[in-house]
Amino acid sequence: MHTSSIQQNILAELDHELAQTRKTLERVPFEQADYKPHPKSMSLWQLATHVVNLLAFNTLFVQHDARDFLDPNAPKPGPTPTSPEELLARFDEYSAMLRQALNESDDEKLTHNFRLHRGEQTIMEMPKGSAIRIMGLNHSIHHRGQLTVYLRLLDIPVPGLYGPSADEK
To answer: For a surface tag, which of 86, 90, 163, 164 has the fewest beta carbons within 10 Å of its beta carbon?
Structure first.
């Protein structure tokens, strides 16, 4: 009987979603970086950068047991990319780091809790495997969905992510 592991399931899902996310990021027009569909929205470039930086956050879930937002020495993403090439290079780098961290982990480690907090205030505490899925992958997919709306509003062909898009039919 073949049993599937938490680690292998996450890696398979990650590989699929990373490929779809890269397709989306490749279409982000840097010349419209400041575009916002609403005053409360992030700019196009802020959103694209956030999608990329979430990969580093995912790696944190795998490799550490906690993250305090008040810790001035906690790891932070690098400066905002200043070109599409820099954005995609960071995406590829952070994707590779996350894959490596997951490959070096195992099911037992992924059942350990991860605590996200601000000083004494716990924001989230759950098993690492769940944190990766909920706060990592689902969070990234949510923001990638927002990015596709920005693309649509800017009249840029939207890539098919789970089958053909309206632009690919």
So the answer is: 163
